[in-house]
Amino acid sequence: METEKIRALVAAADTGSLSAAASKLGYSPSGISRMISQLESQTGYPLLVRHHNGVIPSDSCQILLPALRQLLHDEDQILQMSASISGAVVGQITIGTSFPSSYWRLSEYVARFGKLHPGVTIRMKGNYSSALLRELNDHKLDFCLISKREGSHRWIPLFKDEVSALVQSGSSLASMKRIPVTMYETQPFIEIYPGADIDNNRVFEHYGITPNTTYTTYDIRANMAMVSAGLGIGMCNKTDSSETVEGVTLLPLDPPQIIEAGIACLGDLSPAGKAFLEFVLKSWEKEDGVYSQDRGSSSRKK
């Protein structure tokens, strides 16, 4: 199989659209369709299922995708290693963060790194921690800034964060020093990323709490706006309290909920990825003084 055809297939599977895959890779939709058809002729079975909303991977394709992603990752590694032999740092990096407040800091790092290594293109995306970790393991990300999660990835701790309550300013709850976690069983709760493995739900699971979910959202600012309107109480990481909107008060939980945040990466990080990761860590240490090189470790649960 030619890797460019494989890249077309993976792009179509990821985007769910031949047109989106074409736009991403710089081909026409018909060109993407032709390459995938050629792959299907080689394998002898359908790789994509076409429907009116786009395309989805076939069951057979789902089995192949992890190996195909690894193949593309290895090709990128070889190209970057070849360039590094001559002293050049080139390639494309994709990083993720589960902390919206970190966009500004990471963007500054991207700008500074880009001046040193103009041959490197860096993309940045956001999602919740467990979702980003899945993308990391699928080689869709080079590394990600997340809350600590179990796994065999390398873990580099950076700072402590606190899961906190969001209440309407001026309400009776806003005058409390702490919000008991048990209060979420009775108070109307505005859930973000419903059902997902996020820090909030880990708190509830730890204490055996079933929250009184009244509203749901997938956006932290929408969540805060609903709290501000008096529709219920929310929960978020204190690190992102800079995103707090007017009319919302951030309070600690009782008992306190402290988590560890840091960077997750795999052992086969590309040369460009390694260079940017080292740049991020050194910059972070210089600004906050919290990172030391010997702190990186496996985060496998013991």
Automatic annotation (TrEMBL):
Entries under PROSITE patterns matching the protein: HTH_LYSR
HTH lysR-type domain segment(s): 1-58
Key words of the record: DNA-binding, Transcription, Transcription regulation
Pfam families, A to Z: HTH_1, LysR_substrate
An example molecular function term from Gene Ontology annotations: DNA binding
GO CC entries: cytosol
Top-level division of the source organism's lineage: Bacteria
CDD domains in alphabetical order: PBP2_LTTR_substrate
Family: Belongs to the LysR transcriptional regulatory family.
Protein name per the record: LysR family transcriptional regulator
